[in-house]
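WARN retry 2 of 3 for item q-0093 after timeout on previous attempt; input resubmitted unchanged.
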Amino acid sequence: MPLQFQDRVVLITGAGSGIGRATAVKMASLGASLALCDINYDNLESTSKLCGATTPKHLDDVDVSSNQEVRKFVDATATKLGRIDHVFNCAGVNPTSIPLEDTTDEYWDKLVNTNLKGVFNVTRAAIPHLKSGASIVNVSSISGLRGSAQQAVYCTTKYGLIGFSKCMALELGPRGIRTNVVCPGYIDTPTNAGIVKGGEAVERMVNGNALGRLGTPEDVADVVAFLFGEESRYMNGSVVEIDGGIKGTVLGGQERAKL
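OK item q-0093 returned
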């Protein structure tokens, strides 16, 4: 396999598990150097081992909702690895099904500060380090395209990410920096509440798309690698669904993947 990302640095948030971890492993296999962060440092170290000892890396535990922590991590990445070429904003908080009248300010703040403000913080901090040919991929969700009862806050953050990304595509495009979005569907990750619940919950997710299976983190990672690569050079502001062909409405939050 050609090392098409050799001499390139990829920054990934939420790299400690799931889609973030799979993308880190994928990019390492393509020769990239990695800047990986997560709120769980033990998980991050496990990801680092999977990426191989020879892959140049910078690791740190970071709360993406903290502008100070994000700036420290981004600046340290540029210093240690010499550059930043691609950014994968993957860190996020899972939804919980809550009627709006029962939704607390704390729940709103938690999801908005991580899912939306976190992407804002990382993107803003990274822009001064990005040059022509760089790219950003943000993780929205099928819930950023379709509403879901009792998921108002989560859907708000994921819809907002698509709007933010399209604005960045227009703002950064003239500088040769592309921004795209992936919208995963039901993905088999350890934190997927439906997977934990098992039984009928998993069956409903499997039957909820035309391919008749759950997606894997690797299914998403492969698309992210494509969006970073030269093959997608004319894609900017694109929203890519990775859901196996969702049937009808999106399932409730208790059976939703970590997106």
